[in-house]
């Protein structure tokens, strides 16, 4: 028997992420900005020590999508600073959202959104300082354990417990029970996010629990600065099993 | 009444048949993509055994020919789809549509695994051919067709000294034209299913990192064995799926039936009779002249006309008229 395989390129950054901060976008976190009024906006996306990328976003009441998600790890930073181009890179419907995330790598990004047209520049989002009301910040923790979630502006805290999803039991699905083409039912759904509101009174709950790989969405109701830090790793699942001590040898009975 | 009659017994026919049977060897390979997986084969085989039975309805039955596989390499490749976390949507109040969240994928490139077990030891089939002898006339003056389906096969056999090349003079050819060819369907035992499933599971397992990351991936995909079955679209036993693959998707049995049918029915004659037929060979004789000087005697040939063949349950009879 011969066996060939093209090695998987593992997205290792996902498994190294232990903390999240709303002042920067890293893998497994997303910033979602809500554009509530029609107009032209410029969006600056900064990566550490690189020239920021400038995008022009036009928000209209007419025919335009309600959502764009930008994968910041795939964008190319310009070699020269762009200041004055007016043609739109993106069009959004009024009330639409622009999501910023990074699908891979260890780079962190910051976003600044300015409304164009008025005499004075109106900074709608300076991500490095705070997230404005109406926006969303999401984290998708993978490493199991207990995380401390803090809103540094509103001095609020909550606990987040991340547990491993149940492992499938081998051979649980009876042969023949599955219809052709159907995937065996799984109890684990990573695509079911949990929504938590955060406002002046803090978080809407004191603790939350997620399965590893599920997303916690913070709905920001008043400006916030969020931080999610792994405080206590769940050693039961992240450490190798401890070796059982050797049994002492039993003394032979003498006859 | 025919001028020439030759009778061939069952045992003599069996010896003729064995020579041809041993000359049949085949090699075939193919692969097909089924979306998330590819499957292919590379096979080599030959025939063994078989008993000849003359039947009173002017037919010959060659029964219980063993199909022997010298190589039966089966290649199965899986393209592992993205395994992702996150995603899903946030319900928004009307009139705004839901906000959908990005996903993060564990593999940044779709890895693939493939296995190539040789199943020759696990595949056994029998083939039976029943056919009637047919006579065809080979006219050497007619150029061969531009596309000769038998040309390649005959060239191979000639190069291997199994058969003589077609001559530069005319011949009568007697073929066994198959009425039916019966081949057992490919039937793979449980052990083959287990062999393939274990090999695939090991190959997929080798892709995954260890520790909690592995447990997380297993939770996402729902276990490797079920994941593989889902990718391969297998509702039941993997050995049944494999049999369907070879019998229906690949149609390897049809390929074999076509090969055997063309071999006996159109490409390689069982018996050849030269036309004109040499009844006395050319020779140098010293007994013709009184002086004893050598004299070259030309070969004596007679034209063969109206060659006819029939079979009863005892013998095969070839009859022909001689002369113009």
From TrEMBL, chain A:
Q: Where is the composition biased (Basic and acidic residues)?
A: 171-183
Cite the record's Basic residues compositional bias ranges: 241-255
Locate the region Disordered: 171-193, 230-255
Task: Identify this protein by name.
Answer: Uncharacterized protein
Organism whose genome encodes this protein: Bellilinea caldifistulae
From TrEMBL, chain B:
- Identification of the protein by name: Uncharacterized protein
**What organism is this sequence from?**
Bellilinea caldifistulae
**What are the top taxonomic ranks of the organism?**
Bacteria, Bacillati, Chloroflexota, Anaerolineae, Anaerolineales
